């Protein structure tokens, strides 16, 4: 059977498509709740809250391939040889994880804080 004649079964398509179902579902629920929280408790308009998510999404389009390139070649640097290709960036992300609950505190400057915390 040649590659041109081979048909991909529906179960194979479904299996590839469902690879990140749990992660994407959790992100969608978190984003929906965050939008509700911003509009109800923080006083942002729906437009302002969705602009935060939109800017983060557009930056993801640019920064994800860039960070992939950087981490793939990071082992060539002194820090990369000391910490490994990915561990250095995980260590940098730990403070963001610790201050992530600040997203849910009312009365803070959310346009800047939420952009930085939610995006990373």
TrEMBL record:
Domain of life: Bacteria
Record-annotated membrane-spanning stretches: 21-39, 45-67, 88-118
Family annotation (Pfam families): MFS_2
One cellular-component annotation, GO: plasma membrane
UniProt GO BP: carbohydrate transport
Family note: Belongs to the sodium:galactoside symporter (TC 2.A.2) family.
Protein name: Putative oligogalacturonide transporter
């Amino acid at each position: 059977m040649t590659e041109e004649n081979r048909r991909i079964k529906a179960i194979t398509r479904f299996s590839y498509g469902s690879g990140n179902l749990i992660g994407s579902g959790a992100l969608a629920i978190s984003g929906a709740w965050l939008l509700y929280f911003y509009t109800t408790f923080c006083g942002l308009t729906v437009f302002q809250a969705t602009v935060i998510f939109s800017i983060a999404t557009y930056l993801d389009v640019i920064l994800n391939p860039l960070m992939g390139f950087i981490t793939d070649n990071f082992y060539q640097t002194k820090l990369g040889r000391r910490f490994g290709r990915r561990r250095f960036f995980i260590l940098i992300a730990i403070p963001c994880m610790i201050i992530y609950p600040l997203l849910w505190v009312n009365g803070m400057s959310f346009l800047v804080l939420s952009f930085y915390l939610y995006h990373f």
